[in-house]
Amino acid sequence: MLNAQNIPYIKKGPWEKEEDEKIFKWVKINGPQKWQQCSDTIPGRNSKQCRERWFNGLKPDLKKEIGLQKKIKLYFKDIQIMDQHGVLYQNNQKEELKMQQKIDFIAHLENQ
């Protein structure tokens, strides 16, 4: 039976570099699974914390996805510039060229 003396301590707050390294090592060896066993190697962290840390902060392709999403939002923001009367801003040829370059750049990022 659990009581206050044998309840394991659950660490909260920022992750330390050593903890992140242990998760990277775990995923490299075992893949992104068996989080309970992974948490056994990191004192004070539970399986849910380890899983969420990987999928929401450490997963290598996550940063690439977030960067691409930001670039796409900026692109659409540039397209939909409104003037004072709410009429869609008509881009001149120079701005259309810039937009085409952005489209090409986004397509290049998606294909990497």
Offer a quick outline of the entry:
This protein has 112 residues and is an all-alpha fold. It is built from five helices and no strands. It starts with 16 loop residues before the first helix and ends with a helix.
Describe the model:
The N and C termini lie far apart (about 55 Å). Helix content is about 60%, strand content about 0%. It is built from 5 helices and no strands. It is an all-alpha fold and about 110 residues long. It has 2 domains: about 15-60, Homeodomain-like (Arc Repressor Mutant, subunit A, Orthogonal Bundle); about 60-110.
SSE layout and pairing:
Elements: H1 17-30, H2 35-40, H3 47-58, H4 60-79, H5 93-110
- Which regions have little confidence, pLDDT < 50, spanning 5+ residues? none
How many independent structural domains? 2
The count of β-strands is: 0
SSE-based structural type: mainly alpha
Rg is: 23 Å
Distance between the termini: 54 Å
SS element count, helices: 5
Order of helical and strand elements: HHHHH
Give the helix level as a range of percent.
55-70%
Biggest β-sheet strands, sense, barrel:
none
Mean pLDDT: 76
Q: How much β-strand is present in the residues? A: under 5%
State the shape. Answer: elongated
